[in-house]
Amino acid sequence: MHKKLIGRRDFMKSTLAGVGGLFFLPSSEWKHEIKIVESRGKEKKFVYRTLGKTGLKLPVINMGVMLTDNPSLIRAALDSGILLLDTAHGYMQGRNEETIGGVIKGRHRDSFYIATKIGLPQNRTTGLYLEGATTEEFLKRLDISLKRLGLDHVDILYQHGVSRKESVMYEPILKAFEQAKKAGKIRFSGVSTHSNEPEVIDAVTDSKIHDVILTAYTFKQKHYQEVKKAIARASAEGLGIVGMKAVRGAFQQQPTTQNIVASFKWILQDPNVHTVIAGFTTFEHLETDLAIMNDLTLTDQEKLELQKEASIQGLYCQGCRQCIGQCPEKLPIPDLMRAYMYTYDYRNVAHAQDLIGLLDLPNRVCEDCSFCRVKCAIDFNIPKKIRDVARLKDVPSLT
Ligand code: SF4
Ligand code: SF4
Predict the structure, then answer these.
(1) Where do the structural domains in the chain lie, given as residue ranges?
(2) Which of 100, 110, 207, 360 has the most CB atoms less than 10 A away?
(3) Which of 196, 320, 381 to mutate to test the pocket of ligand 1 (most atoms within 8 A of CB)?
(4) Strand partners for 46
(5) Could you tell me which CATH number the domain at 28-309 has?
(6) 296-325: string of b/e by CB count within 10 Å (b at 16+)?
(7) What's the pTM value of the predicted model, to 2 decimals?
(8) pLDDT band for position 3 (50/70/90)?
């Protein structure tokens, strides 16, 4: 008896509609405006959206500066039509903000937007703030950031790396936001999250305090449907939504140009994502990202590739936090796994080391257990990965 062969077209159809498969919206459901912008002397077509109640009109791809301190690349991004530069107080121990400060010096203040983030000491296992997390410390860090950037105000200030709803409502930081807004040092406030995102996003929406949410959101997250739902609710309440981590950590190998294009198109088909920040580090990648804004339509081939990648385990943790509380040594496993991703996917060992430096790790990591008591939701060999990356704490500073 012959097996019935399935044609390519039928295979594509059944795969794209498969149970538990990724969602793909028809282009009639996207919301955006097309603008012709001048991009380094050439006219280019960019897709624009409005960042919720902030009213900021932004191209759908902007720059996450985290991975580069190359002023020429940041300058090229602004000259190409990118409007928002996203950084953080802690990136490159301050050098990231200083580099941006040098680039924007002398540019008209209305020609760009700056977002930065401030984190305060947290218990990395519980995600709750520690004693040193005070209003004064937050405001002191903001003043340092403004000085590095050479600005009297930033457009968006985020509370950095929140993973618990209790931390969204942490009184000393809310007070600091209020004082900073009153003093004119920030235009809009927000929260950034790359772990336990749905809970954090819902808490921000319920608080009715902030203007913007910066969230990890990728086709690779097992819980992306919950992130999608939380974003939809936040956006309906007027919050601006900025997506991040759309590409990194999602692929088995270093992402190819096709991988990058498909991942950004996937996140941007969600009309509730108003813009994404792209962490490009080369001029070639900048050009790739700019070209995406010409047409967000996912091809069948791109859909298939995303489906395929979504169905395999992958190499990197997506921050579901289901391992929290399982390790008797109370190791901050999702943070360590993120450092692993910075090392092997981002290839940015210095950034991984900066993160490791915040974690207050014991001298011996995972060396005294005869077996690991932690069960990863997607079956990663946790001790192998974290033992590997924890070695960075013993290496002299790379920044
Ligand atoms: S290590 Fe596994 S269980 Fe823990 S956050 Fe990552 S994916 Fe989830
Ligand atoms: S081996 Fe597992 S249980 Fe032991 S310290 Fe490492 S993560 Fe925790």
Answers:
(1) 28-309, 333-394
(2) 100
(3) 320
(4) 35
(5) 3.20.20.100
(6) bebeeebbbbbbebbeeebbbbbbbbbbbe
(7) 0.88
(8) very low
